[in-house]
Amino acid sequence: MKTIQELQDIASQVRRDIIRSVSAAGCGHPGGSLSSTDILTALYFSEMKQDPATWRRDAKGQDAFIPSAGHLAPVVYAVLARAGYFEPAKLGTLRKFGSDLQGHPSTEHGLKGIFMPSGSLGQGLAAAAGIALAKKLAGEPERAFALLGDGESEEGEIWETAMFAAGHKLDNLVAMTDWNHLQIDGKIESVTGIDELDEKWAAFGWDVIEADGHDFESILKAFEIARVRNGKPKMIMFSTEMGHGVDFMAGNHGWHGKAPSAEECEKAMAQLKETLGDY
Ligand SMILES: Cc1ncc(C[n+]2csc(CCOP(=O)(O)OP(=O)(O)O)c2C)c(N)n1
Ligand SMILES: [Mg+2]
Q1: Alpha carbon distances (Å) from 117 to 3, 22, 188
Q2: Is residue 45 one of the residues assigned to a domain?
Q3: In this structure, is residue 157 part of a structural domain?
Q4: Is residue 278 part of a domain?
């Protein structure tokens, strides 16, 4: 079990990994990766039942995770590397031809640690619901987790799944929203006019848990609540900030999908603590 300080240190390194890998690639998605860093760090290092040494997509006795918002690949790869699924040095191959680390997660190239590829918004939650139902039918106690973006939640498929999962009482499904209030085109409320996602999920019959997505105590508490409650699928609404941890990226949707220059990379690195060694 990691301490809060250890989780903070890992997250700081993961943020450095995101900045370096996206900067070297010359393209990619740092904004949402930085807002969901603490959530995924806590998930992989503290909450999920999954072991890199024995991980296989079809292995029994483990939880399943799907990064439904597949553009968050940089943070997914950094967390997987730091959790021991592959050597951190491989992060330098992000988006390079022939690399496992494609711009959106592709398990076809040998990537381990996530259940399936993603990138087309909306699909991952539906798949996670299917996995949760299959586990229930098989009498397996493990769970399915999915990470969603708030902009992703504008997809119709999300709400079909919302009804399906509540109707089947999939209380072994834990969805997490990176609620940074921004997406590719700006504010969620100015794109669809709807930012009250917590109320929407509750109206669709889900158990909604609210947490601060940059406070590990709050994140771990939310996971604990999700673990013990029964009867409904869970949605953890993690309040976050796009670009969190780097002052010139924070709260700015311009960093949804833009690589920092070499100079910006240096500036960002100076703001983040190196704790595990750069790759
Ligand atoms: C089906 C589909 N439509 C459009 C896109 C293009 N797209 C990628 S990310 C994104 C915005 C997502 O917003 P959000 O989930 O809030 O992510 P954030 O900007 O916070 O990282 C869009 C429209 C896509 N990947 N898939
Ligand atoms: Mg967003």
Answers
A1: 31, 19, 25
A2: yes
A3: yes
A4: no
Residue 124 Cβ contacting ligand 1 at under 6 Å: no
Q: Is 58 exposed, middle or buried (0-12, 13-18, 19+ CB in 10 A)?
A: exposed
Tell me if 150 CB under 6 Å of ligand 1: yes
| 18-72 pLDDT per residue, tens | 999 999 999 999 999 999 999 999 999 999 999 999 999 989 999 999 999 999 9
Residue 65 lies in a domain: yes
The one-character DSSP state at 44 is I
**151 in contact with ligand 1, CB cutoff 6 A:** yes
Q: Is the CB of 125 under 6 A from ligand 1?
A: no
What does DSSP assign to residue 108?
Answer: G
**What is the total count of domains within the chain?**
1
CATH number of the domain residue 84 falls in: 3.40.50.970
Q: Ligand 1: which of 71, 118, 150 to mutate, judged by most atoms within 8 Å of the beta carbon?
A: 71
The tokens describing 258, both together, are 């833009």
> What global pTM score does this model have?
0.98
Q: Which domain holds residue 147?
A: 4-271
pLDDT at 173: 98
